[in-house]
Predict the 3D structure of the following.
Amino acid sequence: MGSSGFILIDSFFRPVYADAESLKILAYPCDISCPEMLDGILHRKILSFLPRELPYSQTVYVTHFQSGRRRYTCRAFVLQDHWSRETRGKRIALLMERGLSGPPARARRNIKFGEMYEDPFGYAPDPRYYYLSQAHHEIFTTLRNLVREGCGIGVLFAQAGMGKTILVNALAENLHPESEIVVMSGSCEGRSEFVRTIMGLVGLRPAGSDVWENLQHLKDWLIARSRAGRKIVVFCDQAQDLNTDTLENLCLLSELEKDHRKLIQVILCGRPALVEKLAAPRLAAVS
């Protein structure tokens, strides 16, 4: 059995306490050196596998989720206050456990998948086994050039099962030596949480509680990274599920520039519904 993580959340699924291992699990692959900036990231990750209508009548609710290439078992315990008659919001304790990443190496060598010692058709997309067809190669090259030329924002949309996620993963690996990759999933509630989330993803500590102060702090950091020759790329998979506020803030973020150069690149990846959202009057002006 591998390491386990513990996190305490309130009835709105927002974190109250999290140990170091739970931060590694839920915030992967983000920098966890500044936990106070990760509340939005943890909240959205928890919402991705824990049902909003949690069956409070059950003593223990068990579910499974994936983070990176590992699968985890999560046990949710609803905590009741037996000593106070006051009505308070419930607290929920989450215990997350992971098993071994696979059978021992010696056992794996004895199993072949079509003359291969690893299964290229696993549940989690693996960029190592990604085959670029001509169409996929053209999209890959276009997005890579968009980032390298500093165009600001790019949109990739296609129906489910067309290979969007693994293409974006392969692009992220290709850009990693020359760029700092940020993966954002889920919506933020308001600009303040959005700015804090982006800062948390890049490992930047807040300058204060004021949103504009933090935004200027983020911009100064982006300028410094740009002068050092590093590009910052934000990837958003399943972007059709993002709310309008988050999409608007991402579009506005992509407009940050210095000396006629974009400071951050944003790649939105999703189904055709994403295009409909971006065409809405509120977003048309910024996208």
Q: What stands out?
A: The radius of gyration is 21 Å. The CA atoms of residues 127 and 173 lie 8 Å apart.
